[in-house]
Design goal:
The structure is a homodimer.
Chain A lengths: L34 H20 L6 H12 L5 H8 L3 H13 L3 E5 L7 E5 L1 H25 L1 H17 L5
Antiparallel strand pairs in A: 1-2
The structure holds a DNA duplex.
DNA sequence: GTGAATTAGTTGGGTACAAAACCAATTTCG
DNA sequence: CGAAATTGGTTTTGTACCCAACTAATTCAC
């Protein structure tokens, strides 16, 4: 399975019935330099690669950020977690159920506000987080290697800027 | 429904039993400068914003790249399309069914190879693509504004590099 | 030329996600 | 106080996606 170059413009000048094999040049048109499109491609690829790494410890990549955030912010609520995580709170419900069932986190009703839970890691959760951190670091080193150390900081900053500013106002 | 800024400090200064409101500062730990995480956040945010734009023409953002690629490469096969698009071919099946049902594309069996389809846009599909292109350009201009014109090319190149290189070999 | 491998597309099973409707606890306000 | 609004979390519904297994058409090998 080869991965095709993914960016090249063909001429399509004879609109005869061309045959497009999977690895043939494809004309991306304006897509070729639109950020949103390549953001998606890059994210998908990166996600897949991380999933590969994380398969070793049997925990999907989405779980990782969740564990890390709980570990770093013991007592955090589900809503705060969802927001930090960039996902809807409803998305978290099944994930947290699963993590609790597997003994990685604790969910305790807060005394002061019995609607919300305080989330914390169990010992086993901490251990899992450590393992995952190793995977994640390997994955991120990999990304670093591709990006190049010079551009990394700038690149990261732009990503953050996008996440922070895109949906608001206009 | 307002979209919260995602990073803002509120003062809740009684630090006793810490309460993590949705907009409070959260410690991201090593996550804070890991590329994969921010790649996901940025992609999600961008996707949401585009979905917003595209809602006007009642076509989900995923459809856009599909239409564009068909428009630019008339006669392309589903497999080639999936590959250019960075998605599994099985993902495309229902999407193409839908686009066909709505009269935006044609799927014709190839004479030379009756396994595969040749995909082309109908007139109505071209019109839709034009509308979408306007939305997409607006969206992308928006991203450009955030990224800044200086860094845009570099940023794009890095994204492409990630998509192209991440999963392979090692 | 017939059987084995390959290829295009579909189907089925499963995960991840968001949006909207909902429930229960809590706060606000008349 | 007590009704209305708000907030934390869950449920339901629907979409997008991948993977593995499958069918049908085609090519390859001998």
């Amino acid at each position: 399975m080869k991965q095709e170059p993914l960016s090249r413009s063909a001429e399509t000048e004879a609109p005869s019935p061309r045959k497009y094999a999977a690895n043939e040049n494809v004309d991306f048109g304006p897509l070729a330099n639109w950020v949103g499109f390549h953001l998606r491609l890059a994210q998908t690829a990166s996600f897949q690669a991380f999933a590969q790494e994380a398969r070793a410890v049997d925990l999907s990549p989405g779980r990782f950020a969740t564990l890390m955030l709980i570990g770093r912010n013991p007592g955090i609520s589900q809503t705060a977690l969802a927001s930090a995580n960039g996902r809807d709170k409803s998305t978290l419900t099944p994930i947290l159920e699963d993590l609790e069932r597997r003994g990685f986190i604790l969910r305790e009703k807060m005394k002061t506000d019995r609607r919300s839970y305080q989330l914390t890691l169990t010992e086993s959760g901490k251990k899992m987080l450590d393992q995952l951190t190793v995977c994640a670091r390997r994955h991120d080193d990999n990304l670093d290697r591709i990006i190049g150390p010079k551009d990394r900081a700038k690149f990261l900053k732009i990503l953050q800027k996008i996440a922070a500013e895109i949906g608001r106002d206009e």
